Amino acid sequence: MSIESQLGTLVGSLPDGVSEGVALGAGLADGYDLYESAIGNVAVTFNPGGVSSVDIADQAFEDRFVDRFGRKLIRAEAPSAWSRHIPAAIEAGTPGKLPIDLRSVTSFQAEVLTRTAMIPKGEVRPYAWLAHEVNRPGAVRAAGSAVARNPIPLIIPCHRVVRADGHIGNYSLGGTGNKHDLLEHEGARPDWLEDLASKHVRLQGNTSTKIFCHPTCHAIRRSKVENVVDFRSLDQAKNLGFRACELCRPCC
Amino acid sequence: MKEIGHALASDLDGEFPRVVEEMGRRIYWGLRRLSGNHQEAEDLTQETFIRAYQALASYDRDRIRGINLQPWVWTIALNLGRNHLRDRSRRPTYVEMIETGKPDPELPDGHVWDRRLSHLNGHQKTAVVLRHVVGMGISDISESTGRPEGTVKADIHRGLARLKQTIEEEQ
Asked: Which are the catalytic amino acids of A?
């Protein structure tokens, strides 16, 4: 056999894994890995643009991902440049240095979610407050549906957004029980929040500083118990000469 | 190849995986002989297609249709082989590639040919591998390497002569 034809036999098959590696690197498929959280194992998906979703790691999460995002899902290791930030972001309930991929939502929804990510751990805010914070005070329902469609729960802490009446409300990641557990885990005391809500308490003020806050704001939580008063509305607080806290910015 | 260009122009995301399936093995085995190393050839193959996808995604349809796909992809591969791989830490890694330590898919005579090819200079080796392992035509090789066709022909001719001499010396 000639040298030329011998050289022509030196082509085997494509090694396993190359196609998957290309799909992951090109962003045609997302990778996923499993992580622990306060509410059990979760599947975190990612692509070169960042973390794209968090979901309960059950039998059907791959189907749910494909239905929602229209991309394939492949078992993978997260990019080494930021993989170590994933467990930290889940525990802290905020992205921190972790890049997040919010291409799956509208720019308004992304703005709402980005603001949601800044609610401190252990605190909660009502939907109306979120709408106000993104300069769309009339868009309370739209803000609510942005939070309901949060593709990256836990890391974008939509569990820290509660109903206008103060009740903790629904949760997309496995239901209200999980929301209760997460808030408990973070020290936000959901049973106390429900109790305040049933007493129609929306805000609390400090009689010494004359400042009023959301009840979970760390400013009011540091106040002496005997100085704390309950308010049913913003107007009630203002009429009594209190002004809004500049940290938690109560607006409604 | 022409039909693939048209298919890519109309549905890049849907058709690109097919391009990887169809062209991937010749890219890998060509790079395998050029680098003499499984891991490097695998990494380069993967990176080549990722860069190809990114470039195509930024082109309009007419530009994609006008591409002569095989030499265009090889231009990317040869450039990557020259430069070093960057950006890999920003990508997800397919788990099978880490955990199982899959065996090297080397062909029976692969290492023999690597030794023989090591006697050729870089240009001769690239030209011989692209012509006779990958099966490309002279003009496509000229396009990929950026060397004139006459020079490519001479590289192939001298490379084959060197291989023949090496094989004779083995006996």
From this structure: 158
* Dihedral-angle region of residue B86 (phi above 0 means left; psi in -120 to 50 means alpha; beta otherwise): beta
A57 to chain B, minimum CA–CA distance in Å?
A: 17
Q: A108 CA to chain B: closest CA distance, Å?
A: 26
In this structure, what token pair is assigned to residue A230?
């309950």
Q: Decide if B105 touches A, using CB distance below 8 A.
A: yes
Dist. CA B117–CA B59, nearest whole Å: 37
B67-83 pLDDT tens trace = 999 999 999 999 998 77
Chains A–B, number of C-beta pairs less than 8 Å apart = 129
Residue A21 DSSP SS3: helix
Q: A200-252 has which fold?
A: DNA Methylphosphotriester Repair Domain (3.40.10)
Provide the sign of the torsion angle of the four alpha carbons B127, B133, B136, B140, taken in this order.
negative
Assign domain B1-106 to its CATH architecture. Answer: Orthogonal Bundle (1.10)
Measured in whole angstroms, how far is the alpha carbon of residue A119 from the centre of its chain?
10
Instruction: List chain B residues with CB under 8 Å of A52.
Output: none
Q: What's the complex ipTM?
A: 0.89
State yes or no: pLDDT of A179 exceeds 90.
Answer: yes
Report whether pLDDT(A215) > 60: yes
Packing angle of the helix pair B2-10, B69-82 (nearest 10 deg): 80
Instruction: Say yes or no for a CB contact (<8 Å) between A31 and B94.
Output: yes
pLDDT tens digits, one per residue of A130-160 = 999 999 999 999 999 999 999 999 999 999 9
Domain range list for chain B: 1-106, 107-171
pTM for the predicted model, two decimal places: 0.87
Which CATH number applies to A22-92: 3.30.160.70, 3.90.70.10, 3.40.30.10, 3.30.930.10? Answer: 3.30.160.70
Interface of A with B (CB under 8 A): 3-4, 6-26, 28, 30-31, 46-48, 74-81
